[in-house]
Amino acid sequence: MIKFEQNISLQGLNTLNLPAVAEYFATLTDPEQVTEIVEFAHSNNLSILWLGGGSNLVLADQVPGLVVKIALSGVDLLTEDDEKVVVRVGAGVNWHQFVEQSVENGWFGLENLALIPGTVGAAPVQNIGAYGAEFADSCHSVEVVDLLDQSLQQLKVEQCRFGYRDSLFKQNPGRYLILNVQLKLSKQFTPNLGYTALDNQLQAMGVARPTAGDVFNAVVQVRSSKLPNPEELPNAGSFFKNPVVSAQHFQKLKTRYPSMPSYADELGVKLAAGWLIDQAGFRGLRDHHVGMHADQALVLVNHNGATRTDVDQFSARVAGAVLEKFAVQLEQEPVPYP
Ligand SMILES: Cc1cc2nc3c(=O)[nH]c(=O)nc-3n(C[C@H](O)[C@H](O)[C@H](O)COP(=O)(O)OP(=O)(O)OC[C@H]3O[C@@H](n4cnc5c(N)ncnc54)[C@H](O)[C@@H]3O)c2cc1C
After folding, report:
1. CA of 16, closest atom in ligand 1
2. Is 235 in the pocket of ligand 1 (CB under 6 A)?
3. What are the tens digits of pLDDT across the range 23-56?
4. Options 3.40.50.2300, 3.30.300.20, 3.40.640.10, 3.90.78.10; which CATH number does 235-337 get?
5. Ligand 1 pocket test: which of 56, 143, 293, 300 has the largest number of ligand atoms within 8 Å of its C-beta?
6. Which fold would CATH assign to domain 75-186?
7. Cβ(52) – ligand 1 distance below 6 Å
8. What is the separation, in whole angstroms, between the first and last Cα of the chain?
9. Class of 5-70 per CATH?
10. For 203, what's the count of Cα atoms within 13 Å in the CB-facing half-sphere?
11. Is 102 among the catalytic positions?
12. What spacing in Å lies between the alpha carbon of 173 and ligand 1's midpoint?
């Protein structure tokens, strides 16, 4: 029998440290419990929030319905040949710990995604990415419960509609419960370099021909030096996606701001949201409880005692200033709930 508790604080369960309280709360430790959870929610007319590490959520003070903490464990080697392995990983496994374990086991492809907080089950939701790699590159399939009919499905990578910080799961909030993820990882290591910060770090480490362990360590060091640790300064990582603008709009901006960083994108030109926020005057700016980080203008931080309202009001100010100065609309990356 699952314990359904009432009025449970989620403050320690979200990396922004927002003072949210769940109407009902339960923990999922075994896929067999899904039916009981869904029946409880249906019979009490409750919506369900599947909660991983809470590192990509902006929670309201009162979270109505049932919050289910995903604690599904397990790492199983499914297939192996000379070149690759397919590994099934439980949704509740810590992402970074699995990346570390995969490097130790000689399963390559995830090194650039080291130190991203959260769980394996949330990785497909926004198709996590960093340093030129993204979850989709190593995804074999995602095992889900489709809550429309409670069917178990194994969705192949091409069915998951992965895009930049986007997926089928993000587009259909609440519909899919991710139970396991199957990753296809290479047994031959091919470094994925070309990011200045990463290349510089490897150089500083005196590494000319990096192993997977070197890249893993370099990513950990670069990220630790650049990003605020949520345990010290609560945050949800990048607060906005990098916006994509038309080539025409980009040309206008580039003429006016020649130093503006940009990247080719299949839909137009991608701009660096952090640079836009910095130029709009928000880097290091604080308004009472919240602010944009002084070293990473893209990271909204909770200095102390912030609520969802503080976050919403401040992020709207930031997005408004960027819109006014550059005519570029920023889109929030962490999921607001509800
Ligand atoms: C310091 C910091 C750095 C970060 N850096 C990066 C980065 O480099 N790249 C990047 O892409 N992201 C980054 N993030 C964002 C975040 O870590 C990722 O999005 C991560 O995958 C979220 O995992 P989580 O378990 O905390 O998810 P949660 O925040 O708990 O949930 C996020 C969303 O996924 C849903 N969800 C979670 N688990 C499941 C499940 N099993 N089934 C169905 N839905 C589920 C939730 O309902 C919610 O909608 C960073 C965050 C922080 C705080």
Report:
1. 53
2. yes
3. 999 999 999 999 999 999 999 999 999 999 999 9
4. 3.90.78.10
5. 56
6. 3.30.465
7. yes
8. 27
9. alpha beta
10. 8
11. no
12. 13
